[in-house]
Amino acid sequence: MNILSNAVKFTDDGGSITFETGYLAKDDDRHIVVRYRISDTGIGMSAEFLEHIFDEFSQENSSARTQYKGTGLGMAITKQYVDLMGGTISVDSKKGKGSTFIVELPLELTDESKIQKREYNAGSNDLTG
After folding, report:
1. DSSP string of 27-79?
2. Is 17 helix (H, G, I), strand (E, B) or coil?
3. Which residue, 94, 83, 81, 103, is CA-closest to 42?
4. Which of 28, 45, 56, 79 is an S-S bond match for 93, by CB 3.0 to 4.6 Å?
């Protein structure tokens, strides 16, 4: 949620945010890796800042705190959650072009007999405006 919230916060009107999910099969039929990919066309970050994005209280410049309201803890907390779940998080960003975050979380599948099956189609949603 923090990554999506940041994407909204740092993407100007008329920009775009993409959220994709998928999974990768593991060596056995009991485990998968769920992948979340969040991309935006927001303000992006410099290569120098990317080295510190997961540090506590890190923000690219002091005006970001005033303009976007934050403490610089969100990405540090996000990284801690991902680490605790045994996953990985990576980011690619270009200043003025946007950012892409990829989170991968290993999961163990439950027994088929315990799954309540129902069909759900999320489709595509246009959130313009």
Report:
1. SSTTEEEEEEEEEE-SS---HHHHTTTTSTT--SSHHHHHHH---S-HHHHHH
2. strand
3. 94
4. 45
